[in-house]
């Protein structure tokens, strides 16, 4: 159970306090090991309606969310240009380091762990037992009049809400989806939008990431690498965009350069109050100069170029995701709801059905929280919905599900469950004592004075991290420029109406072009329809089947069409029999060396050195090939 120090929601469980000092699991009270019986709920339980819930206007959200992000982006972009001319120039920190200096630190959260339940979490009996135990703990500690807030990942949040709607004894629970898993879904959605667009090839061509890491980033399997890759890409694309945007606005460029110079000077002095004032001055300057409105006008003037539109959509998705992350790290409850509502339309457009179904319901419930539970709402407004472990450094809070991952890591010991998974008694004993052992270990380290050192500043403020990210941004800018500048729109060029891959220049079909350019409007329309039909009026049950939009993306152009199952089986049989005949020939004819044949000849339709496994051509620079050849030639001449 997670709670802040200034609240009374603190729970500490100790096995030694039990009156029954048993040594075997069988002798423990049923309250430790027994599960409550829970029949499967109705597949479509009655859903409470939210007739007053409405979505904000999209242009209002963009202005609210973008000001702080643009203040940092402008400062970083202009600072990079100054560093090229003067290497001794002060550097503007990376995104998280910058925000740690312009936000206030939150109070420390006290974290505790009750015994674990040694049963699959997705089963209804396990889920009901955990929810009821959490509610009982909260009742004992703070009384029955206070509700219990529980955060779950989406795989458990969905069945937990269905269970809560189907029963009458779970009304004292406020369920929330975990922020870490929402960010992972955002990364997967962004990856699906840019997969095979050429951005992924630019990452490899600039030597930022290898092919395996690029696949992890696009699939959303690596959160830290994904966040860093998209942040570097945002800075690179924004630098190219800014050059085109300010070409005809010299007065605005001068104004922004002056504001960024104030921020850089404040960082050079190192005074946090001056940094915060310079940042706020930049935010006010963006509002007074109507920079965002002028950027929207510039975007509208160039909407005839599909590549321009798609890259701008990609940049907006990144900024919206990082605005959501900023709301979590700073504990800003209002910004959390705004940014989550803003990004939800992409869940609808890209068929993230669980998030499309449950996030609107969560937003509707949280919108009515101020009227239904004003005390809980006030706690959320005070930042008591995230977990913070350091009150000296700001901008380092995490979601409850992310904090739970840290807690799970502290309970992992050498050996762990190895050798006891098949022993029910040993497994149950391990789950019961693991939290207590982790607590004892932490207290022992604290008493011995060997606990981890608490840092005094954000780790991303180091000069090495800033220099490394600056280098990555410059490498990516050079890689994108060497192929195609997506923001350089020629008025007379006929290719402006075509959407093509940044690297390979492969043209996309009209259907793909329309879906990629309109995916924000498509998602917004689906979002509005869902809210009107399932949350406001109840014309359609929330749990009814949702149809996939099947949006056409870059990857649709190179998607391999799969054959029918029966035909595929026949093909596999033919391949197997062919290889068997080759083996029989090799045995009957000793002069055939099968190792040599496999090593020298590629069993592929296209050369693997020039084409990827999916049939797309790999791009390479003639200059890089010539440099490699020239080096090898010099070595050979030196040997001679």
Number of strands: 4
Helix-and-strand structural type: mainly alpha
Give the rounded overall mean pLDDT.
84
Oligomerization status of the protein chains: single chain
How would you describe this structure to a colleague?
α9 (223-245) crosses α13 (306-330). With 640 residues, the protein is mostly helical. Helix content is 59%, strand content 2%. The radius of gyration is 29 Å and the shape is globular. The model is unreliable at 1-20 and 565-576 (pLDDT under 50). It has helices spanning 30-33, 58-85, 95-102, 124-142, 154-166, 179-194, 199-205, 211-219, 223-245, 250-269, 272-288, 291-301, 306-330, 333-349, 353-367, 369-372, 374-381, 400-411, 424-448, 463-483, 510-517, 519-536, 565-588, 594-600, 622-639; strands spanning 2-4, 109-111, 148-152, 173-177. A two-stranded antiparallel sheet has the order 1-2. It has a two-stranded parallel ribbon with strand order 3-4. The chain is built from 25 helices and 4 strands.
In short:
The chain is mostly helical and 640 residues long.
Helix and strand topology:
Elements: E1 2-4, H1 30-33, H2 58-85, H3 95-102, E2 109-111, H4 124-142, E3 148-152, H5 154-166, E4 173-177, H6 179-194, H7 199-205, H8 211-219, H9 223-245, H10 250-269, H11 272-288, H12 291-301, H13 306-330, H14 333-349, H15 353-367, H16 369-372, H17 374-381, H18 400-411, H19 424-448, H20 463-483, H21 510-517, H22 519-536, H23 565-588, H24 594-600, H25 622-639
Parallel strand pairs: 3-4
Antiparallel strand pairs: 1-2
Helix pairs in contact: 2-10, 2-11, 2-14, 4-5, 6-13, 8-9, 9-13, 9-20, 10-11, 13-14, 14-15, 14-22, 15-22
């Amino acid at each position: 159970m997670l709670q802040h120090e200034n609240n009374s929601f603190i729970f500490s469980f100790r096995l030694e306090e039990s009156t029954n000092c048993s040594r075997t699991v069988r002798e423990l009270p049923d309250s430790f090991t027994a599960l409550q019986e829970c029949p499967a709920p109705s597949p479509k339980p009655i859903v409470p309606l939210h007739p007053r819930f409405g979505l904000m206007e999209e242009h209002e959200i963009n202005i609210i969310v973008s000001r702080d992000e643009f203040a940092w982006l402008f400062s970083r972009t202009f600072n990079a240009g100054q560093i090229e001319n003067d290497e001794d120039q002060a550097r503007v920190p990376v995104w998280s380091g910058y925000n740690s200096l312009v936000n206030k630190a939150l109070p420390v959260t006290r974290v505790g762990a009750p015994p674990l339940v040694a049963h699959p979490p997705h089963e209804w009996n396990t889920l009901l037992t955990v929810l009821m135990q959490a509610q009982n703990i909260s009742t004992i500690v703070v009384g029955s009049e206070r509700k219990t807030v529980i955060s779950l990942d989406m795989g458990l949040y969905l069945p937990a809400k269905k269970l809560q709607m189907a029963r009458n004894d779970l009304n004292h629970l406020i369920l929330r989806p975990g922020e870490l898993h929402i960010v992972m879904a955002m990364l997967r959605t962004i990856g699906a939008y840019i997969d095979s667009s050429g951005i992924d090839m630019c990452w490899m061509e600039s030597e930022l990431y290898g092919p395996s890491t690029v696949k992890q980033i696009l699939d959303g399997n690596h959160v830290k690498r994904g966040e860093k890759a998209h942040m570097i890409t945002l800075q690179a694309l924004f630098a190219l965009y800014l050059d085109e945007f300010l070409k005809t606005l010299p007065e605005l460029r001068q104004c922004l350069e002056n504001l960024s110079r104030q921020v850089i000077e404040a960082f050079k002095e190192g005074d946090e109050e001056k940094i915060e004032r310079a940042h706020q001055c930049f935010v006010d300057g963006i509002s007074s100069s109507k920079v965002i409105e002028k950027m929207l006008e510039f975007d509208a003037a160039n909407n005839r170029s599909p590549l321009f539109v798609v890259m701008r959509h990609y940049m907006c998705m990144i900024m919206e995701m990082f605005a959501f992350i900023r709301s979590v790290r700073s504990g800003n409850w209002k910004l959390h709801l705004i940014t989550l509502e803003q990004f939800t339309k992409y869940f609808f457009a890209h068929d993230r059905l669980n998030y499309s179904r449950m996030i609107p319901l969560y937003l509707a419930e949280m919108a009515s929280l101020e009227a239904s539970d004003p005390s809980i709402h006030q706690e959320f407004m005070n930042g008591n919905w995230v977990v913070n472990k350091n009150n000296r450094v700001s901008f380092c809070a995490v979601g409850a599900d992310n904090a739970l991952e840290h807690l799970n890591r502290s309970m992992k010991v050498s050996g762990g469950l190895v050798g006891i998974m098949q022993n029910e008694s040993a497994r149950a004993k391990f789950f019961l004592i693991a939290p207590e052992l982790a607590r004892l270990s932490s207290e022992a380290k604290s008493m011995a004075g060997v606990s981890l050192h608490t840092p005094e500043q954000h780790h991303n403020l180091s000069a090495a991290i800033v220099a490394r990210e600056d280098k990555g941004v410059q490498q990516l800018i050079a890689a994108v420029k060497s192929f195609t500048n997506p923001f350089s729109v020629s008025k007379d060029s006929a290719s402006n109406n075509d959407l093509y891959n940044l690297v390979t220049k492969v043209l996309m079909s009209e259907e793909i072009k329309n879906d990629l350019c309109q995916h924000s409007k498509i998602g917004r329309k689906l979002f509005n329809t869902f809210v009107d039909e399932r949350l406001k009026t109840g014309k359609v049950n929330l749990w009814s089947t949702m149809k996939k939009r099947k949006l056409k993306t870059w990857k649709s152009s190179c998607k391999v069409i799969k054959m029918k199952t029966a035909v595929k089986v026949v093909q596999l049989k033919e391949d197997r029999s062919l290889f068997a005949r080759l083996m029989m020939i090799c045995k009957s004819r000793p002069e055939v060396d099968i190792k040599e044949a496999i090593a020298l000849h590629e069993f592929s339709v296209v050369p693997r050195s020039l084409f990827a496994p999916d049939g797309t051509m790999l791009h390479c620079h003639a200059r890089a090939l010539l440099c490699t050849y020239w080096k090898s030639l010099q070595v050979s001449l030196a040997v001679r």
